[in-house]
Amino acid sequence: MVNSMRSLVGAWLIPVITALSRSTLRSTSTSASSAQFTIPAEADIGAQLIANIDDPQAVNAQSVCPGYKASDVQENLHGFIARLALAGEPCDVYGTDVDALTLTVDYQASSRLNIQILPTFTDAVNSSWFLLSEEFVPRPESGGATNASDLIFSWSNEPSFNFKVVRKATGDVLFDTEGTVLVYENQFIEFCTSLPEEYNLYGLGEHFNQLRLLKDANVTMYTADVGDPIDSNIYGQHPFYLDTRYFKTGNSSERAKRNESNASGQYTSHSHGVFLRNSHGQEVLLRSQRLTWRTLGGGIDLTFYSGPTQADVTKQYQISTVGLPAMQQYSTLGFHQCRWGYNNWSELAEVVANFERFEIPLEYIWTDIDYMHGYRDFENDQHRFSYSEGAKFLKDLHEGGRYYVPIVDAALYIPNPDNASDAYDTYTRGAAADVFIKNPDGSLYIGAVWPGYTVYPDWHHPNATEFWSNELVLWAKNVAYDGVWYDMAEVSSFCVGSCGSGNLTLNPVHPPFLLPGEPGNIVYDYPEYFNVTNATEAASASAGAASQTTSTGSSPSTSTAYLRTTPTPGVRNVNYPPYVINHVQTGHDLSVHAISPNSTHSDGVQEYDVHSLFGHQGLNATYQGLLKVWSGERRPFIIGRSTFAGSGKWAGHWGGDNISKWGSMYFSIAQALSFSLFGIPMFGVDTCGFNGNTDEELCNRWMQLSAFFPFYRNHNVLSAIPQEPYRWASVIEASKAAMQIRYALLPYYYTLFHLAHTTGSTVMRALAWEFPSDPTLAGVDTQFLVGPSIMAIPVLEPQADTVKGVFPGVAHGEVWYDWYTRTVVKAEAGANTTILAPLSHIPVYVRGGSILPLQEPALTTREARNTTWSLLAALGSDGTASGQLYLDDGVSVTPNATLNVDFGASHSSLHITTTGKWKEVNSLANVTVLGVKKASPLVKFNGKQMSTVNYDSTAHILFVGGLQEVTKSGAWAEDWVLEW
């Protein structure tokens, strides 16, 4: 949910007041009965730093540092170990140079090579070095051998230590540090590699931009509580990239130059992956034929994945390193509705009733921080969200086959010691267990978030997860929730430093910015072209925005003098490191809108070293808590905002605080595809936009697009106009049409999730990954695939009734069928095809060679799972097709029974084979086969002639109905064959 509010219309900073004055602003919390102290806006303004990449005075470490020399090589079964020593005088440019390093080269598996360069722990400085614990992020096990590897590591000392990683099969150099020096200091590490002239890199998240990383991009990785600014670091940290290289067929040693007009299939491609296991703030600088990787500490722990396809790389990364994605409950694939501004249980009941009234599917209803008592976790406001009224609402909701998810924030309120009625049992229990982060002097670190001054669970404390789990269990006794929305875990604070220390008698306090809807921050923003479609309303909003900007006054002035720090030998300046990353927050200060880097964990580790892991560890704690809430029987459902490599083991992710603009919808596709690479397939965005007001056209198109994202939720900001899909007639039409397809495909989605959970495959896929021999697809992120078989081509701009799309593979006989007409698409190879797409219509296509199991759409997934089955078989150009289906109870962590069904079609027949003990009682209603060139008048099911048969010889569509009678015991109760 919203946090920094800077992206909203109007000034986000309130007029400056002194630290001890009281504001006349009142909290939106009903717990505040008198005027409430507002944290001064200046409390969230830190030092003014200049990012090194923008600093003309910044020293280029490559030009002044000596690098290292390797010696004392000791080979072993899996690789070798060597010593690295400084090759000259220390440069100490952004820290203290490390004299001695240890290089370990480990051929962990045939497809995986690990390279570690770590300080040699022989002195007091290096022995205190922070290296990422396997407790936080496990390391892959070793077990490979040099001669069995797909990759070759070589090194040289000329002119200083450098190394190469080469693909053995092709000789292609994947990583090459020759011509550069290794820089290794206590607050700065830098290494470089050459890149092909025309490179295709993906990943290095989390960012809000195009899918393929731009040349000359500066990619910062450091978790930040901020909206969705383009090209800046945001909520998660994923130091992993996919590198895809195209080669002309028959000449694998010659790298192909991009040829946008080429669609003749004269190319092949190889992909590999690179992961840096490091949690410090990082920057990757992409330049012409060069990648420079910089971190603020830690170690070099690089793993290479040989691929050679994107699918191989993704599986190798997940299976060996970060873990496989959590299996989602079947119900979570339904539609989710939320907003910041649902004020009580009655409003939620009304929303649910409206979805039923307009016959729009709804599975989950969510609440933002409105339900909380004073914005406190694990406590409901008993005036508006009482436990007794909630119990009735949730009982009715659950009986109707629907579910409820509330938000839970990362920080916890600390009570006012002068107010006996301000007790907060969650804090009391946590304080007794001593599980909160401290200041360096051992006092509590007290920041500020929604409830006021707050403390933060210390996930390094051995009892912190147990404490958090217990709070979830206790709360579940009062609120029968069905999942957790874990927010603000970047980790966020609305002030710099331990601002609550000495100020607790002011609690609860108001944030240092105006909430949406408060005077001075009325939401007047609308999407592009709103002035065309709604001229009168747009003029009124524009006048209101102009008046508001004038009346709110100016923001506090900030110094234009930049703070520069220089290294002190042997000492780390964690609050203001000598190297300044291009951090998104004001002044690039790591303390702004976050807890300070010098805040300290129970094991002595400073936040500086583990900042980007807070959300990751909090997701784990929440996962363990939900296992206890449901006694280990129900799969935890968690959507988190701040993630790290491996967070997908526990949770899904939503795209954060986007904006109700067409650009936000456009970039959501690339964001979703990136999280497919990161192993977090349960991804979606705030459909129709979060910040600002949406409008009918944008919401129409966005509800269509998000219907094909794995996580499908509508959510918007406090005080903006309501945007439930039933608010506009055309959005009702668009939503229902798109949901008809999604809900029919739920068995397909569920099967894809099972495959992701068990094999590391992806759910949403870029065209380039599925068609690796076509370099023209390398940058396509305006359309996408769901699994291998469904392609969506959404409209992503206003005032359009057509969209251009490409149909990959047609030059090689690939066939695409229109979902709606079931007919073959006539498309030219390598060309953009203009497709009719009037409002409320999203073009969707089925790939030839696919067999899709379908069920009837319904208002809930429970109802949908109780409908009859059908099969859609889309034959490829060779007359064959295949598919699969996975079923279980949809809920259990370890299902008692499962079912796998394999579908195959060839030689004018379609057959299934089944394995497993899950009993699917719903019968098969019909089978539709597309691309049937010729059909016999006698169509048989297991040898029995069928009477309900229709064959369209023009469209080449065969329909066989009336199959309920021959599948009474269940569609997949036994193997069968259909012949035509």
Structure description:
The chain has about 1000 residues and is α+β, with helices and mostly antiparallel strands. Among the domains are: about 65-320, Sandwich (Immunoglobulin-like), CATH 2.60.40; about 800-980, Immunoglobulin-like, CATH 2.60.40.1180. Residues about 1-35 and about 250-265 have low confidence and may be disordered.
Number of H/I helices: 17
> What is the arithmetic mean of pLDDT?
93
Cα shape = globular
Termini Cα gap: 55 Å
Low confidence ranges: 2-33, 252-264
User: Major beta sheet, specifics?
Assistant: 9 strands, parallel
Strands ordered across the widest β-sheet = 28-27-26-25-21-18-17-30-29
Strand content: 15-25%
Class from helix and strand fractions = alpha+beta
The CATH class designation of the domain at 65-322 is: Mainly Beta
Write down how many β-strands occur, each being a DSSP E stretch of 2 or more residues.
48
CATH homologous superfamily title of the domain at 65-322: glycosyl hydrolase (family 31)
CATH topology type of the domain at 65-322 = Immunoglobulin-like
CATH architecture of the domain at 65-322: Sandwich
Proportion of residues in helical segments: 10-25%
Instruction: Specify Rg, calculated over alpha carbons.
Output: 29 Å
